[in-house]
Amino acid sequence: MPPTPSTGTTVIPLADMAARVPDGASVALGGSFLHRGPFAFVRELIRQRKRDLEIIKQSPGYDIDILCRAGCVARARAGIVAMEGNFGLAPWYRRAVETQRIALEEHACMTLTAGLRAAAFGVPFQPVGGVHGSDLAALNRWASITDPYGSGGDVWVIPAIRPDIAVIHVNEATEHGDARVRGTSHWDRILTRAARQVFVVAEALAPTAAFEDRPELTLVPGFLVQAVSVAPNGAWPGSCWPRYDVDYPAVEDYLDAARPLDAHLERAPEAAEPARV
Q1: How many independent structural domains does the chain possess?
Q2: Any idea what the CATH number is for the domain that residue 197 is in?
Q3: Which of 6, 18, 1 is nearest to 201 (CA)?
Q4: Within a domain: residue 101?
Q5: In this structure, is residue 92 part of a structural domain?
Q6: Is-above-0.90 flag for pTM?
């Protein structure tokens, strides 16, 4: 089934948005690697000591790493996971997988996207190419079907993946939940179509008239969105183009195992901001 339409978007503080995530929920996170991820929201999940979460994302990095470091994650469905070329693999995530503190359903980015598309389109599975020769199909017990149109070939099909909540970080949103981003949308479009609920964290609120003037720029329509929160610099230490770039020294500081996690959380922009509505 497609996402349930919103009955009325609410603009709420970031802490209230995170409080709506129950322990054990499956949460899809927007952005890609260090770029335009909902990182302020992720840190608020840590502050509220959320537990047993399932994280769904094609290309996570800092977000899933810090959640694993804080002990918030029980399961992950992910494609490539890394801190990008400057920093290599995500160390606390890797350690959590290797010690089996979290269960991993490993994907390629395309297979995870196929499962999300199936959920968005309201079908039980989605065909995908490029899996032949990979061990992923056997590991995940994916099925294959014979081409019903007579080519004689088989195709792997990925079961629907429907997150409980998708959370994206955007450049701007209206009070009604309409959201848009500058530059690439990464995986955010399909995440918001597949999830049962959609939360939007915005750098700033914008007047509805600005969206009405350019409706084709709207990435997520407000009727899909349950809640909006305003968090300036909320993608820190990552980027939110064109407002700011990656704070590479802050990422290096985070990756220093000798530095306590609490010090990183206290340094985050939202820690110094008053509650916003």
Answers
A1: 1
A2: 3.40.1080.10
A3: 18
A4: yes
A5: yes
A6: yes
